[in-house]
Amino acid sequence: MGQPLENRYSQQQPDAAQVIVVLGGGSVGSVPDGTERGGLMSAGAARLLTAARLAKQHLLPVLISGGQVFSDGASEALVAERILLQLGLPQEQIIVETQARTTKENAAYSAALCRERGYKNVLLLTSALHMPRSMQFFERYLGEQGIKVVAYPCDYTLNPQGKFNPRWLVPQLQAFDITCMALHEYVGMAGAFLQR
To answer: For the chain, which terminus, N or C, has the lower number of CB atoms within 10 Å?
Structure first.
């Protein structure tokens, strides 16, 4: 169920990109994180590590989009900013967008910041399962501004070759989790289509 989502886009080289837009993937507000409070959930952490690596390799700015989704959470972008700084990315290479609580809002607020800064080529970085829905919104909102969006999926949950593994015959909690995430994405994609 998740494989069609994860295989829809492949990682594109950021050659023409002027900025990496990385989407938040959840945060927990009160957990300890070294000397600080607040951490990223696994999807958000995987996305951020990929963005940090690409930003350092290609000397690109990173626009982190994600606000405080739940009352007991933290601003995803502010937690991510702190982590990027701790990983050695300079402050001037980091752009923070803290209002977005949905993928649609990620696209709308990122479009405004990209327009404001004159970016015409964006590398969109999010989990592979989340990429098709993200591209729906980003192509709509940034495309209206004449901004080109290129996908860079990461945080894969499935083997892209799809080769059979006998372990798959045994029920696994991870498979149930991936199915739930895939269903969430399909419902979200249908909702995005209906919102046109």
So the answer is: C
Q: What is the model's pLDDT at position 161?
A: 65
Give how far Cα 123 sits from Cα of 22, 147, 148, Å.
8, 11, 9
What is the model's pTM?
Answer: 0.85
> Do residues 122 and 18 touch, judged by C-beta distance below 8 A?
yes
Amino acid at 68: Q
What the block records as the tokens of 133 is: 């829905």
Contact in structure between 38 and 83 (CB atoms under 8 Å)? no
User: What are phi and psi for residue 127, nearest 5 degrees?
Assistant: -65, 145
Between 119 and 41, residue with greater pLDDT:
119
The dihedral built from the CA positions of residue 173, 177, 179 and 183, taken in this order, carries a sign that is: positive
Alpha-carbon torsion angle 124, 125, 130, 133, nearest 10: 0
